[in-house]
Amino acid sequence: MKALVVMPTYNEKDNLPRIVPEVLAQDERLSVLVVDDNSPDGTGQMADQMAGENPRIHVLHRPGKQGLGKAYLAGFEWALARDYDRILEMDADFSHNPRYLAPILAASEETDLVLGSRYISGVNVINWPMSRLLLSYFANVYARVLTGMAVRDLTGGFKCFRRQVLASQDLQAIHSNGYAFQIEMSFRAFRRGFTIKEIPIVFVDREHGQSKMSKAIVREAIWMVPKLRLMALFGRLG
C-alpha cells in the first residue's frame, strides 16, 4: 500500500522541519506532499531542500494563496496521477498529532473514508478560546442536521481517503474552501455510498504561526451546507 499525506502550507517555516519527520516516522508506507502557496517566509524553499534529502518528501508549488480547499484538490490530483492507494489530509501546525496516523491507516483497511474526530468521544480540543470552540461545535451540529449524516465532526481536516473515493469525484466541480470544503468532501462520499468511520483524536491549537480562520470561511460554510443538500435532492452532485 502506498499512502500520501497531503499537507498544505502557508508560512509554516517553523513547523515544517519538525512535523514532516514525525509523519514519516509513523509508517514506512507514508510519503508527504507539501502543497505550498508561495509562502513569503520561505516555507516552499525549505520544503524543496527537505525533498532533495528524502525521496519520501515531495513538493507542489502554487503561485499564490488560493485557499485550503484548492490546495487539497491540487494535492489529490497529484496523488491520483501517481497511483497512491491512500490519500490523507493533515495540517502542518501540529494541531493534528502525527501519532494518530497509524490508527487512521489501520481503520482505512475496512473503511472508505476515515475521519479524525474531535467530537466522537466528548469534546477533545485544547487551547481554543471558548468562542472558537462553540463556533466549531455548533457548525458541526448545523452540518449534521442539514446533511443527514451521522458524523460528529464534519468540519475536521484530518482524513484518510481510499483512492476510489477521490477517483469517483469530479474534483473540478468542487469550489468550496475551509469548513465547507471538509463538509462537501465527506458529503459527496456519503452520497455515493462510501463507508465512513470516525476515530477519536485530540486537537491541539497551533503553537507557532497564525490561524487561517476568517469570517469568509464561516460565511461560506453557512450557505454551502444547504446548497449541498439541495444539489443532492436535485441530482446535481455528479
Q: What's the alpha carbon Rg, rounded to whole Å?
A: 17 Å
Helix content: 40-55%
CATH superfamily: Spore Coat Polysaccharide Biosynthesis Protein SpsA, Chain A
Distance between the termini: 29 Å
Supply the CATH architecture: Alpha-Beta Complex
Strand order in the largest sheet: 3-2-1-4-7-5-8
Percentage of residues in strands: 15-25%
The H/E string reads EHEHEHEHEEHEHHEEH
What's the helix count? 8
Please give the structural blueprint:
Elements: E1 3-9, H1 16-26, E2 30-36, H2 43-53, E3 57-61, H3 68-80, E4 86-89, H4 101-107, E5 113-117, E6 125-126, H5 130-147, E7 159-162, H6 163-167, H7 178-191, E8 196-200, E9 203-204, H8 215-233
Parallel strand pairs: 1-2, 1-4, 2-3, 5-8, 6-9
Antiparallel strand pairs: 4-7, 5-7
Helix pairs in contact: 5-8, 7-8
Notable features of this structure?
Spore Coat Polysaccharide Biosynthesis Protein SpsA, Chain A; 7-stranded mixed sheet
Question: Could you please describe the fold and organization of this structure?
Answer:
With 238 residues, the chain is of the alpha/beta class. It has a single domain (3-233), classed as Spore Coat Polysaccharide Biosynthesis Protein SpsA, Chain A, CATH 3.90.550. It has eight helices and nine strands. The protein has helices at residues 16-26, 43-53, 68-80, 101-107, 130-147, 163-167, 178-191, 215-233; strands at 3-9, 30-36, 57-61, 86-89, 113-117, 125-126, 159-162, 196-200, 203-204. Strands 3-2-1-4-7-5-8 form a seven-stranded mixed beta sheet, sandwiched between helices. Strands 6-9 form a two-stranded parallel ribbon. The longest helix has 19 residues, at 215-233. The radius of gyration is 17 Å and the shape is globular. The two termini are 29 Å apart.
